[in-house]
Amino acid sequence: MDKNKIITKKSLNFFQEYLNNAAPTGYEWEGQKIWMEYLKPYVDTFITDTYGTAVGVINPEAKYKVVIEGHSDEISWYVNYITDDGLIYVIRNGGSDHQIAPSKWVNIHTKNGIIKGIFGWPAIHTRDKAKEEPPKLDNIFIDLGAKNKAEVEKMGVHVGCVITYPDTFQVLNGNKFVCRAIDNRAGGFMIAEVARLLHENKKKLPFGLYITNSVQEEIGLRGAEMITQTIKPNIAIITDVCHDTTTPMIEKKKEGHTEMGAGPVISYAPAVQNKLRERIIETAEKKEIPFQRLAASRSTGTDTDAFAYSNGGVASALISLPLRYMHTTVEMVHQDDVENVIRLIYETLLTIKVGEKFSYFD
């Protein structure tokens, strides 16, 4: 495999289309269709479930099963209350950040299509500088330019409509990918690229590979909880994002030191099976793939936890992509890290033998 090139023009176009499409938690299916269409040439079949998780399968007849996984949903808002004056108050769908909301454009998803709106905010001239209020969940609001509640409802907007940001993919300084929803649409992209490389390099795996794009991670790992019961894997390698902690106002003593451009981040946590993690590290060292280490405490906060503690215990590990400005509309990652996560998963898969249990007692 060419160490200097993994992401092609075609795959980058897919990544851009995939990121630009809205797929809020609970409404992931259009993004899943884009992802499945790209993955289709590289897998033998697909599994989907009731809530929208999609799985591309290579060697579905094999009894020994390995999962590589990312999650497909993005944070968003719900319409919660419409005032008589036609302004909209919201609640979170996932970990949406109230502090970035003022002056942002939004898309409200209705049966009539997308309705545009803005998060309004009082002009600086009108605020009391002695006791300025910061943006809070109970004071941010959306303005559709409507004169009253009846006009809002006529547009098709009602309580329960989901709201996303329209910000789209851009490349900054030649090799930084910037967009909303890189957490964790990047995971779906990277596992799809692993499948593509296996196909193009004509690698025949001795086990079933389940390329899994889970839903509803942002509200508690729910999609992973469901699909792991369907697949019943022997091994799961999860990819998600973690924080680049080198930007201002982040305390490294608390968050650790991980940075964009320095390689994939390999986690230490109770849910991470130690022998599988060491296999990943050994692979990185052998293949000269740069990597970083991160210590989690009680849990990883990712789908790793859902897979690890399912089906009587599944050997699971986490490879993360360092990201700046998580849960904003300008999430940023380094192309080198994206390619090295793909490379590390790909190379690790080639080391796995059928029947491996990664047992501490063998």
UniProtKB/TrEMBL annotation:
<feature type="binding site">
    <location>
        <position position="71"/>
    </location>
    <ligand>
        <name>Zn(2+) 1</name>
    </ligand>
</feature>
<dbReference type="InterPro" id="IPR008007">
    <property type="entry name" value="Peptidase_M42"/>
</dbReference>
<dbReference type="InterPro" id="IPR051464">
    <property type="entry name" value="Peptidase_M42_aminopept"/>
</dbReference>
<dbReference type="Pfam" id="PF05343">
    <property type="entry name" value="Peptidase_M42"/>
</dbReference>
<dbReference type="GO" id="GO:0006508">
    <property type="term" value="P:proteolysis"/>
</dbReference>
<comment type="similarity">
    <text>Belongs to the peptidase M42 family.</text>
</comment>
<feature type="binding site">
    <location>
        <position position="327"/>
    </location>
    <ligand>
        <name>Zn(2+) 2</name>
    </ligand>
</feature>
<dbReference type="GO" id="GO:0046872">
    <property type="term" value="F:metal ion binding"/>
</dbReference>
<keyword id="KW-0479">Metal-binding</keyword>
<protein>
    <submittedName>
        <fullName>M42 family metallopeptidase</fullName>
    </submittedName>
</protein>
<keyword id="KW-0645">Protease</keyword>
<feature type="binding site">
    <location>
        <position position="183"/>
    </location>
    <ligand>
        <name>Zn(2+) 2</name>
    </ligand>
</feature>
<feature type="binding site">
    <location>
        <position position="240"/>
    </location>
    <ligand>
        <name>Zn(2+) 1</name>
    </ligand>
</feature>
<feature type="active site" description="Proton acceptor">
    <location>
        <position position="217"/>
    </location>
</feature>
<keyword id="KW-0378">Hydrolase</keyword>
<keyword id="KW-0031">Aminopeptidase</keyword>
<dbReference type="InterPro" id="IPR023367">
    <property type="entry name" value="Peptidase_M42_dom2"/>
</dbReference>
<dbReference type="GO" id="GO:0004177">
    <property type="term" value="F:aminopeptidase activity"/>
</dbReference>
<feature type="binding site">
    <location>
        <position position="218"/>
    </location>
    <ligand>
        <name>Zn(2+) 2</name>
    </ligand>
</feature>
<feature type="binding site">
    <location>
        <position position="183"/>
    </location>
    <ligand>
        <name>Zn(2+) 1</name>
    </ligand>
</feature>
